[in-house]
Amino acid sequence: MIRSARTLLCLVLGIALAGCWGTQRLEDLSPAELYAMAQRAVEKYRYEEAQKIIDRIRDDHPFSKFATEAELLEADMLFRQEKFEEAAAAYRGFEELHPTYPKLDYVIFRRGLCYYNLSQPPDRDQEPTHRALEAFQKLLYARPKSQYAAEAQDKVKELRQRLAEHEMYVARYYLRKKRYSAALGRLQELVRSYPDSPLRDQALALALEIQPKAEREKAGDDE
Predict the structure, then answer these.
(1) CB 54 within 8 A of CB 36
(2) Which of 19, 34, 52, 137 suits 61 as a labelling partner, its CA being 20 to 30 A distant?
(3) DSSP state, 176?
(4) Read out DSSP for the chain?
(5) What does R_g of the chain's alpha carbons equal in angstroms?
(6) Mapping DSSP to helix (H, G, I), strand (E, B) and coil, where does residue 110 land?
């Protein structure tokens, strides 16, 4: 009976303390406490709540180290919601504002992942692919020993192959239209820019095959 009473008392006190914390005003909390709350909100998918707390940190503690961490948390929150364009812009802004941030390799890698997730098949526009490639290559150049380097290297290989496939796709499109000079230019670009691609030999052979046609086409245009 006594044990049950003690258990009940502990439960009541726990609820009371939780209630006090829940009603505590944000402006009364330290930057560290606010940041911890924002993290928990993000982990529990309460993004609107997290954004309000992040804004509070930014407004009330702009020179705190937690303001910087909250800025990165905001980018991560966008990434978690698969708002990749917005997240990429947020990571880019963070890079520019905090070039000496200790974990900048993480920021660059995440920016690369944003564009990687936005990248399209070889028959579509490849601007996101180029941007993803730029980010991963920057990471490998700036932080070659980063914990993200191995995965970045794999992504670089994959993205370069996708771009090579895009060049081949466009070259064959021009061939169907009998625009031989344009097709030759794309094949030459593939060979020059992606010499490690499995498509290199195929592109080189096709370029040699259509080069006479391309030359005749150009001669006809010059007349």
Answers:
(1) no
(2) 19
(3) H
(4) -HHHHHHHHHHHHHHHHHHHHHHS-GGGS-HHHHHHHHHHHHHTT-HHHHHHHHHHHHHH-TTSHHHHHHHHHHHHHHHHTT-HHHHHHHHHHHHHH-TT-TTHHHHHHHHHHHHHHH---TTS--HHHHHHHHHHHHHHHH-TT-TTHHHHHHHHHHHHHHHHHHHHHHHHHHHHTT-HHHHHHHHHHHHHH-TTSTTHHHHHHHHHHHHHHHHHHHHHHH-
(5) 27
(6) helix
Quickly tell me which residue has 């520019």 as its tokens.
Answer: 96
Q: What is the pLDDT of residues 51-110, one digit of tens each?
A: 999 999 999 999 999 999 999 999 999 999 999 999 999 999 999 999 999 999 999 999
CA distance 53 to 79: 18
Question: Which one-letter amino acid corresponds to residue 143?
Answer: R
pLDDT digits (tens, 9 = 90+) for 186-212: 999 999 999 999 999 999 999 999 999
Tokens of 131: 């941007």
